[in-house]
């Protein structure tokens, strides 16, 4: 069971999406696990053949416990049971191991997509033929696909007992998890804060001119170039990008930006947008739409939850001027962006109306200080003045 954040202690295995004997490639989604922050699609980071499934759907599993075995190149395949030894060595004879059970193996009818066991059971309960169910993007029919087929058939959604990491937890479990992570952060990380208020009028003028040349579906929300600008500014201050574990600062050459996203019904989650600084703003916009849409329906991937190197929190328009965020362990910095506002601003000795934005950096004093954050903010100001470089 992978760790999907500092506030995760364990998760409930919902369904397997791969079977023993399947060849596994890096990035394959092999299972769905539910945590207090929603359903997480577990990706595999090893190559090989899925040899056996240890955990069954419904099991509550702590972080670090084994849920499956993958045989890599050079690993020996399971051997058949040896023949019984002669009578003179009866102590070596033992009953054969029980046959593997089927509840954790996705199956498929001839000519149809494979279905997870939980999806197959739900389809039987709902009277839905698997041949009428469209497979998901991974080619497997899961619970969500059966529910969608049920809805198309006019059936109300099923109401299974809620799956929780700990019995008896309700929506407050997320608040408990967030509170625990924040308490750990404030207790263990020596925070410092540095902020600046920028003239972002050139940035917004450039964005409005760019969007005016595009069709409505192709237009950019300001969050996309803002995220790219933050990532580019971080290139000059690597001390703000990485993690601090076991008393050591691990700088990251890649910038995987965690995007703080509000969940429906309350709570926050910060999935990672990988290699943010290297992406075009259109790619950032497309990825942002994809991530936010999946977060809102509670389907995110384990890699997006486990390897962010820094986080950005963007309050959005018509909210608050400033946010002083709390670092998400084991990261060493977080950037908070307040709402853009039109304010009186002095340019060449004259007071003029300009759009401005306050950006705050929370840094870990164990690895950097305020001068580093100030250098980051200075670089960000340069990008706001010349947004064409985005």
Runs in which pLDDT lies below 50 for 5 or more consecutive residues are: 77-105, 107-111, 159-170
DSSP summary, beta strand count:
21
Quaternary arrangement of the chains shown?
Answer: single chain
Distance between the termini: 39 Å
Mean pLDDT: 82
- The number of helical segments is 8
Shape: globular
Q: What is the succession of H and E elements?
A: EEEEEEEEHEHHEHHEEEEEEHEHEEEEH
Q: What is the CATH class name of the largest domain? A: Alpha Beta
Brief summary:
By secondary structure, the protein is an alpha+beta fold.
List the helices and strands and how they pair.
Elements: E1 10-16, E2 23-24, E3 29-35, E4 38-43, E5 48-53, E6 60-62, E7 68-71, E8 114-115, H1 117-126, E9 140-141, H2 143-152, H3 172-188, E10 191-199, H4 201-212, H5 223-234, E11 242-245, E12 248-251, E13 257-259, E14 261-262, E15 268-269, E16 272-273, H6 281-296, E17 299-301, H7 302-306, E18 310-314, E19 333-337, E20 341-347, E21 350-364, H8 370-385
Parallel strand pairs: 4-17, 8-9, 13-18, 18-19
Antiparallel strand pairs: 1-3, 1-6, 2-5, 3-4, 5-7, 10-21, 11-12, 13-16, 14-15, 19-21, 20-21
């Amino acid at each position: 069971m992978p760790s999907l954040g500092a506030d995760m202690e364990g998760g409930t295995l919902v369904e397997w999406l791969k079977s023993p004997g399947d060849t596994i490639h890096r990035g394959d989604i092999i299972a769905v696990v539910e945590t207090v922050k929603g359903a997480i699609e577990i990706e595999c980071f090893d190559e090989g053949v899925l040899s056996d499934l240890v955990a069954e759907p419904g099991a509550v599993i702590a972080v670090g416990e084994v849920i499956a075995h993958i045989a890599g190149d050079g690993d020996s395949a399971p051997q058949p049971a040896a023949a019984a030894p002669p009578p003179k060595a009866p102590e070596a004879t033992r009953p054969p191991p029980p046959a593997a059970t089927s509840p954790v193996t996705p199956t498929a009818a001839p000519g149809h997509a494979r279905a997870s066991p939980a999806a197959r059971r739900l389809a039987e309960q709902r009277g839905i033929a698997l041949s009428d169910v469209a497979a998901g993007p991974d080619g497997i029919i899961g619970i969500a696909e059966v529910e969608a087929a049920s809805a198309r058939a006019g059936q109300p959604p099923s109401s299974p007992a809620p799956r929780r990491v700990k019995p008896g937890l309700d929506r407050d479990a997320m608040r408990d998890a967030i509170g625990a992570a924040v308490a750990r952060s404030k207790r263990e990380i020596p925070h410092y804060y540095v902020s600046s208020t920028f003239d972002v009028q050139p940035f917004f003028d450039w964005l409005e001119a760019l969007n005016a040349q595009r069709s409505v579906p192709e237009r950019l929300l300001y969050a996309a170039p803002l995220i790219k600008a933050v990532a580019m500014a971080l290139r000059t201050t690597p001390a703000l990008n990485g993690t601090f574990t076991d008393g050591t600062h691990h700088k990251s050459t890649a910038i995987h930006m965690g995007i703080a996203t509000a969940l429906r019904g309350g709570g926050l989650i910060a999935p990672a947008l990988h290699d943010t600084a290297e992406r075009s703003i259109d790619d950032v916009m497309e990825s942002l739409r994809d991530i936010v849409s999946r977060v809102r329906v509670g389907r995110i991937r384990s890699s997006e939850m486990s390897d962010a190197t820094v986080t950005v929190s963007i309050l959005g328009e018509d909210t608050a001027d400033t946010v002083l965020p709390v670092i998400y362990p084991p990261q060493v910095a977080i950037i908070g962006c307040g709402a853009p506002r039109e304010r009186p601003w002095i340019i060449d000795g004259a007071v003029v109306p300009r759009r401005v934005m306050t950006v705050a950096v929370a840094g870990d004093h164990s690895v950097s200080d305020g001068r580093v954050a100030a250098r980051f903010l200075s670089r960000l100001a340069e990008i706001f003045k010349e947004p064409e470089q985005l």
